[in-house]
Amino acid sequence: MDQKGVGSLKLPSEFIAKMERLLQNEASRFFSTYDEGKVNGLRFNPLKTDRETFLTLVPFALSPVPFCPTGFYYDGGEQPGKHPYHAAGLYYIQEPSAMFVAEVLAPNPGETVLDLCAAPGGKTTQLAAMMKNQGLIVANEIHPKRVKALSENIERFGITNALVTNETPEKLAKYFPGFFDKILVDAPCSGEGMFRKDEEAVRFWSQAHVEQCASKQRHILDCAYSMLKEGGVLVYSTCTFSPEENEQMIEAFLQTYDDLELLSIEKVHGIQPGRREWTNTGLEEIERTARLWPHCLKGEGHFVAKMKKTGSAPAWNGSYVKPNISKQMLRTYRQFEQEALQIELEKPMYAFQHHLFALPDHCPSFNGLKVVRAGLHVGEAKKQRFEPNHALALALKPQDVRCSLDLSSGSSECFKYLRGETIETGEDRGWLLVTVDGYPLGWGKEVKGIVKNFYPKGLRVHA
Ligand SMILES: C[S@@+](CC[C@H](N)C(=O)[O-])C[C@H]1O[C@@H](n2cnc3c(N)ncnc32)[C@H](O)[C@@H]1O
Description:
Bound molecules: S-adenosylmethionine
Distance between the termini: 41 Å
């Protein structure tokens, strides 16, 4: 494809010409952002810590993202993904403009929420944290490989109210008509806002791809619409600039469903309205949507639209999942609980073969769906004993367990643990919650002075 140099990047000539035509005298400001480095952000995890504590704890220089109370910019020279606090789920590394989307959906504790295109979980982790682990969030990802990363991020963040599925939007639409209070469609898109971060997105770009994405997005939105409750709220977002995937997508969607009201998103901190002149009908209300432009704020770029279903919806008539755990399995678990924990898990328990899960509130029956995680993975019943899962460790607080081993974040012992090595302690206390500066990292089992390492093999750091 014909390309032209812009800043340090080579961009498709057709994309440059299109943006020049769309942005006119704003285009030079837009293109000048390609001379600047990408913007880096992370979001702290309010399920595990609070803002003040977080700021005194982390060793990176941070400055606040103005449109996300949990978001911070960090300097490109830092490597927060390699710090033990990342393994402990104290933050999620996320492009800053992406942080605005969950703020717009703003779910409340106890609601029923769907994140339809969820991997790798940036928005799911933010939504679930806003829900304070109460209610239900169905986090779905269509691609089997990407759903694994989603599930791991949910685990790392200590999220206990997520049903993680690996389904198509149409399959979910059949299961959940009229079921959700709030739905996020963070759509697969042509990724024009990712060009500074991701060379693949540049290579993949063509006008034909923009149009393919638009037709996929429309299908996903139709599925999402059918899953909304009466009064339910749907947020649609992309990380691309093309009007076909943004203003024109929402314009056509609103033309199809006359019971959808477009809600206004507050335009503060450099956030701009959607462009009326880029719709096909000059739709004035499109200015209620939001555009985050790299030349107007510190972020790579996003589009966000928020809609409410004002008409009636068929009442969901599915059933809720029933606890299925055997008495023997429950006994094995309770014995572990008495030995190792100071709390009792009170959620309904569900067994997938030997694996035990504590279900989210009001969990719908998921028979026939590809479920990757149902709430909190508590552990596995083995012969006469119970082995706690890593997810349980990351969802606990040190005061929830009888014994813990606290390691300092700068210590060699901490990195030994993350590499999967044993640690000598000289004691014999059984299951230990291993923590870094008081935040859970995983399990260890202390026998005859040695802590056997239960940090999952797939997560271990290589020396
Ligand atoms: C923009 S990404 C989601 C990012 C995610 N929400 C986050 O914040 O981390 C879009 C996701 O949609 C998925 N996807 C691709 N095709 C899809 C389809 N036809 N239906 C639903 N999801 C699809 C992609 O695999 C990708 O994970």
